[in-house]
Amino acid sequence: MRRVLTSAAVAAALALAVTACGDGSGDAGSAPAKSAAPAEVSGTVTWWDTSDATTEGPVFKEIIKGFEAKYPKIKVNYVNVPFADARDKFKTAAQSGSGAPDVLRTDVGWVAEFASLGYLAPLDGTAAVDKPEEFLPVPAASGKFNGKTYGVPQVTDTLGLLYNKELLKKAGYDEPPATMADLKKVALDVKSKTGAGGIALNVDAYFLLPFIYGEGGDFVDVQNKKITISSPQSVAGVKIVEDLITSGAAVKPALQDSYTNAETAFKDGKVAMIFNGPWSNADNLGGKVFKDNPDNFGVAPVPAGSAKAGSPLGGHDYTVYAGSQNLDASYLFVQYMASAESQAKIAGKLGLLPTRQPAYSAPEATANPKIAQWQKPMETAVERPWIPEAASLFQPLVEGYQKLAGGQTTTEPMLKDVATAYQGILKGWSL
User: Can you tell me where the transmembrane regions are (predicted)?
Assistant: First the structure.
């Protein structure tokens, strides 16, 4: 059945529009040269796609065929680079001046860092920045640094609570938990009444944020240049995770490759709940317990803590390498891939959320019920700080989280160690 995304859903996406600009003081690039006429542009564009090679890559390759048909003088060299490796691999290539792609699918948290290092071409005034008024302001803000545009939004996302409706029903619940306290109770009831695990945790810093945000905490306070990861609010959030593990409400976390382990357990019906984003829709729906029963797959906002329900705003941008020898072709490639038409195709086939308002009402997008299903989770999305150091803040926290999940430490000393590590990253910031 074709489902239509209502104007309310578009309004919900627009509710994320809290105008923001990237922080930073340095000029990371000069004004671009005038672009050539599209029909005259030729060359090869190497694109590093950091999406899932199995479920998402084929869709992007299909869209690339449309680009090459429109611009027959331009060829695209598609390279799928694992997301976990892409940041360091791009920085190494850009620093050496050899081997960097013309275009990179960049996590929203990397743009300010790459731009501050001079690795990205400024895009204002080029074909890449097409119909900017269509973009939702918050995703668009992720591509800004020092007043210039370095990234064009591809997709936006957040984390939600994904749940197995049948397992929850067997445990006595018709609705998913709305609070963190309920999350623990439901997880324990699932465990005792069904034999399945209650919730599987991804031992990654990004997946700690809903717990931290829920208690009013955060990594940092950018306005006051203060490190807040060890604040009482952040401590309270991480203690919820510690309690889920020690109480048995969460299955024993895998310390290595925890994302894949949690995802596999969920789609095989071995656990009832996980936190994940819309990028996992296709993978989950191909799983044993959802493939023949997609209605069993539930999506809800992350449960609220004592302060609020909050989940990190994520997504990806298209960026162009400053040292590219194919700038005009790269600008046209970004324009095509980020168009409302391309975004609607991506939304329809993969359930990934567009960054352009018109894409939400396109027939291809409205045909996918998952686009509307993610409306409520997106309303709780919290904008992350667009600072050059943002991406570097995750590693100390994930290392601490792994020790916590492995029983080697507890919340307070772990977060104090993380805060100390942050002082080495954020020069001049206070605790």
Answer: none
Q: What confidence category does residue 34 fall into, taking pLDDT thresholds of 50, 70 and 90? A: low
Please report, for residues 40, 212, 355, 372, the alpha-carbon distance to residue 159 in angstroms, rounded to integers and kept in the order given: 43, 13, 16, 15
Nearest to 114 by CA among 130, 94, 134: 94
Q: In this structure, what are the phi and psi dihedrals at residue 264, rounded to the nearest 5 degrees?
A: -65, -45
SS (H, E, C) 410-429: CHHHHHHHHHHHHHHHCCCC
132 three-state secondary structure: helix
Q: What is the per-residue pLDDT across 226-249, written as a single tens digit (0 to 9) for each? A: 999 999 999 999 999 999 999 999
Q: Are 375 and 365 in contact (CB under 8 A)?
A: no
Sort 18 into a burial class: Cβ within 10 Å, 0-12 / 13-18 / 19+.
exposed
Spatial separation of the C-alpha atoms in residues 311 and 57, rounded to whole Å: 26
pLDDT at 321 over 80: yes
* H or E element that contains 114: helix 111-116
Give the residue from 384, 402, 396 showing the smallest Cα distance to 313.
384
Cα(5)–Cα(377) distance, rounded to whole angstroms?
Answer: 15
| C-alpha–C-alpha distance, residues 271 and 186, integer Å | 12
Per-residue pLDDT band for 282 (boundaries 50, 70, 90) equals confident
Q: State phi, psi for 9 to the nearest 5 degrees.
A: -70, -40
Cβ atoms of 294 and 3 within 8 Å: the answer is no
Strand partners of residue 160: 276
Secondary-structure percent of the chain, ordered helix, strand, coil, rounded to 5: 45, 15, 40
